[in-house]
Design brief:
It holds the Pfam family Cadherin. It is found in: Membrane. Residues 20-123, 124-233 form the Cadherin domain. It is a single-pass membrane protein. Keywords: Calcium, Glycoprotein, Membrane, Repeat, Transmembrane, Transmembrane helix. The chain is mostly beta strands and 240 residues long. It folds into two domains: 18-114, Immunoglobulin-like; 122-224, Cadherins (Immunoglobulin-like, Sandwich). 2% of the residues lie in helices and 42% in strands. It is built from one helix and 17 strands. The chain has one helix spanning 172-175, and strands spanning 18-24, 28-29, 36-43, 53-56, 63-67, 72-77, 88-97, 104-114, 122-123, 127-133, 140-144, 147-148, 158-162, 176-178, 184-187, 198-207, 214-224. The chain has a four-stranded antiparallel sheet with strand order 1-3-6-5, with no helix packed on it. Strands 2-8-7-4 form a four-stranded mixed sheet, with no helix packed on it. Strand 16 (198-207) and strand 17 form a beta hairpin.
Length: 240
């Protein structure tokens, strides 16, 4: 005789969830609004609760997961990022099934943030006071100014310059010069205390970003007296 036997195979939770990354954008520019970083798909070859999954990332990151089609997720920024605060993020995608015992798969992504020229150079002081003794030699190094920029690359490269003086009578171009690369200041000619005791001018620091950002600082130069004049009698006049 014959008999028919039906065998039902009961699923066991023996397959780990799978993560397939379809696209990844890195670096992403800072200051951008909601930006898509990655698109990925998850799946589990088991059935029932063994094949149902949850998907998550760390809570303390400025990113969120958005489900799209079934088992597809988009990783997006949760607002604008600031490269100067954090330039790189390590994101762990965790997919866990609902079987017993639960099986978990993780995938790590590294996302870097590219720089935007959003910081102007900052001088170490708002005002610099320099002192130089009169009768100095020409081209004497009398001091320096310094500025830094929190950006990176060309956006952080600083160039120094002398700005037009507020006093149109001040012959600044014949008094001092500045090294555009390092901010060193030089007296171009011998200074005379009896003719000029002090003068001030502004210096600029500009980065090489596009558009360039800049800032200013004030420089005061005090000329110190030297004993270079002999006394003479004004009155009474001496007869020869």
């Amino acid at each position: 005789g014959r008999c028919s036997v039906s065998i039902e195979v009961v699923d066991v939770n023996d397959n780990f969830p799978e993560i397939t990354i379809s696209s990844l954008t890195s670096p992403i520019p800072e200051n951008s609004p909601e930006t898509e970083v990655a698109l990925f798909r998850i799946r589990d070859r088991d059935t029932g609760d063994n094949g149902r999954m949850t998907c998550s990332i760390q809570d303390d990151l400025p990113f969120v997961l958005k489900p799209s089609e079934e088992n597809f997720y988009t990783l997006v920024t949760n607002g604008a990022l600031d490269r100067e605060s954090q330039a790189e993020y390590n994101i762990t995608i965790t997919v866990t099934d609902l079987g017993t015992p639960r099986l978990k798969t993780q995938h790590n992504l590294t996302v870097t943030v590219s720089d935007v020229n959003d910081n102007a150079p900052t001088f170490s002081q708002t005002t610099y006071t320099l002192r130089v003794r009169e009768n100095n030699s020409p081209a004497l190094h009398i001091g320096s100014v310094s500025a830094t920029d929190r950006d990176s690359g060309a956006n952080a490269q600083v160039t120094y310059s002398l700005l037009p003086p507020h006093d149109p009578q001040l012959p600044l171009g014949s008094l001092v010069s500045i090294n555009a690369d390092n901010g060193q200041l030089f007296a171009l000619r011998s200074l005379d205390f009896e003719a000029l005791q002090a003068f001030e001018f502004r210096v600029g620091a500009a980065d090489r970003g596009s558009p360039a950002l800049s800032s200013q600082a004030l420089v005061r130069v005090l000329v110190a007296d030297a004993n270079d004049n002999a006394p003479f009698v004004l009155y009474p006049l001496q007869n020869g």
